[in-house]
């Protein structure tokens, strides 16, 4: 866990890992419409009647700020769910290369370049803040304080990840165990880790309620040996890690796919994923 809200906000490893925005866009998992729709409703994005905006006594649209939106993988599905609704989406991302790709992918969307720890928006100006596949990069008090500051009094903060479902495929367990060690080495915190509890008991104290969760939505992505290797090695601790980590991952991937697929003449056709969704509300 980092608490680097003062100067260098975007971790060096993130800058290295996300240097190739087009690779990220091509190989990473996508979000399903159903999961995103469910998540937005849990966050109080009520498009049937605009209760939240009414509570805020304004006639402005409901406003969602997405932080760390990368190439807009989540943003695009969210925009599809919210099509023709009176909801304004502001996408934000600190890295220049990601912002450029984002502009290509969601040309009509409002984009601001900023880290989660320093958001150039007024106090109490957004109804929901969302971090999709990104909160592990800014699991720090500075970011949580910023979300609290920009949110309206009854605003919500949501986190979502699409992660490998190692309960659905044994070979993924071995891969996930390896990635988990790297995550821990780099102090990245995910909801399935012990440290997660501390984030919402210590770090967010006085700012947010303890999050509710849903991990019921699943998704399967068509794959191949080549795609699986590219996708798995695009994970930040590998892509942004040392040469040794990259080589160890390469060796592990070859060994695992040889034992589970190639030696048995089985093709690798899909990769199972699970959505990890969390939502909490601002404390006043
Ligand atoms: C794994 S990508 C997720 C992108 C996108 N939201 C998605 O769902 O595919 C993580 C993103 O977090 C961004 N990030 C890293 N550090 C950040 C920070 N301190 N504040 C905001 N975003 C950050 C990275 O630049 C990257 O685009």
UniProtKB/TrEMBL annotation:
**Keyword Methyltransferase listed:** yes
- The domain of life is Eukaryota
Q: Which UniProt keywords apply?
A: Methyltransferase, Transferase
Instruction: Decide whether keyword Methyltransferase is in the record.
Output: yes
- Return the Gene3D superfamilies for the record: Vaccinia Virus protein VP39
One Pfam entry for this protein is: Methyltransf_11
**SUPFAM superfamilies named in the record:** S-adenosyl-L-methionine-dependent methyltransferases (SSF53335)
Q: Which InterPro entries match?
A: Diverse_substrate_MTase (IPR051052), Methyltransf_11 (IPR013216), SAM-dependent_MTases_sf (IPR029063)
Q: Which segments constitute the Methyltransferase type domain?
A: 65-157
What the record says about family reads:
Belongs to the methyltransferase superfamily.
List the protein's name. Answer: Methyltransferase type 11 domain-containing protein
Q: What is the lineage of its organism?
A: Eukaryota, Metazoa, Cnidaria, Anthozoa, Hexacorallia
